[in-house]
Amino acid sequence: MASPVPVKEKKLMDMKLGELPGWILMRDFTPRGIAGAFQRGYYPYYNKYVNVKKGNVAGISMVLAAYVLFNYCRCYKELKHERLCKYH
């Protein structure tokens, strides 16, 4: 029988819904921990989409789409206000 994996070491996709709050509380939210999380996500993304022999614009376009979506969500309140004004 396999030994159970501690909740802290499980990946997000391996979590059950009931374990999720405890898993989130165990994460490291210091600046160093957040930088480490971005670094752990950056290298697999870079090696899969950017650093390939027959590359295309898919890797860069995903980053651009995420940037556009982030800025739209950030400015949604102002955009909604402008849309609802009669004269702007």
Automatic annotation (TrEMBL):
<keyword id="KW-0999">Mitochondrion inner membrane</keyword>
<comment type="function">
    <text>Subunit f, of the mitochondrial membrane ATP synthase complex (F(1)F(0) ATP synthase or Complex V) that produces ATP from ADP in the presence of a proton gradient across the membrane which is generated by electron transport complexes of the respiratory chain. ATP synthase complex consist of a soluble F(1) head domain - the catalytic core - and a membrane F(1) domain - the membrane proton channel. These two domains are linked by a central stalk rotating inside the F(1) region and a stationary peripheral stalk.</text>
</comment>
<keyword id="KW-0597">Phosphoprotein</keyword>
<dbReference type="Pfam" id="PF10206">
    <property type="entry name" value="WRW"/>
</dbReference>
<keyword id="KW-0066">ATP synthesis</keyword>
<dbReference type="GO" id="GO:0042776">
    <property type="term" value="P:proton motive force-driven mitochondrial ATP synthesis"/>
</dbReference>
<dbReference type="GO" id="GO:0005743">
    <property type="term" value="C:mitochondrial inner membrane"/>
</dbReference>
<dbReference type="InterPro" id="IPR019344">
    <property type="entry name" value="F1F0-ATPsyn_F_prd"/>
</dbReference>
<dbReference type="GO" id="GO:0046933">
    <property type="term" value="F:proton-transporting ATP synthase activity, rotational mechanism"/>
</dbReference>
<keyword id="KW-0138">CF(0)</keyword>
<keyword id="KW-0007">Acetylation</keyword>
<keyword id="KW-0472">Membrane</keyword>
<keyword id="KW-0812">Transmembrane</keyword>
<keyword id="KW-0406">Ion transport</keyword>
<keyword id="KW-1133">Transmembrane helix</keyword>
<protein>
    <recommendedName>
        <fullName>ATP synthase F(0) complex subunit f, mitochondrial</fullName>
    </recommendedName>
</protein>
<comment type="similarity">
    <text>Belongs to the ATPase F chain family.</text>
</comment>
<keyword id="KW-0813">Transport</keyword>
<dbReference type="GO" id="GO:0045259">
    <property type="term" value="C:proton-transporting ATP synthase complex"/>
</dbReference>
<keyword id="KW-0496">Mitochondrion</keyword>
<keyword id="KW-0375">Hydrogen ion transport</keyword>
<comment type="subunit">
    <text>Component of the ATP synthase complex composed at least of ATP5F1A/subunit alpha, ATP5F1B/subunit beta, ATP5MC1/subunit c (homooctomer), MT-ATP6/subunit a, MT-ATP8/subunit 8, ATP5ME/subunit e, ATP5MF/subunit f, ATP5MG/subunit g, ATP5MK/subunit k, ATP5MJ/subunit j, ATP5F1C/subunit gamma, ATP5F1D/subunit delta, ATP5F1E/subunit epsilon, ATP5PF/subunit F6, ATP5PB/subunit b, ATP5PD/subunit d, ATP5PO/subunit OSCP.</text>
</comment>
<feature type="transmembrane region" description="Helical">
    <location>
        <begin position="55"/>
        <end position="73"/>
    </location>
</feature>
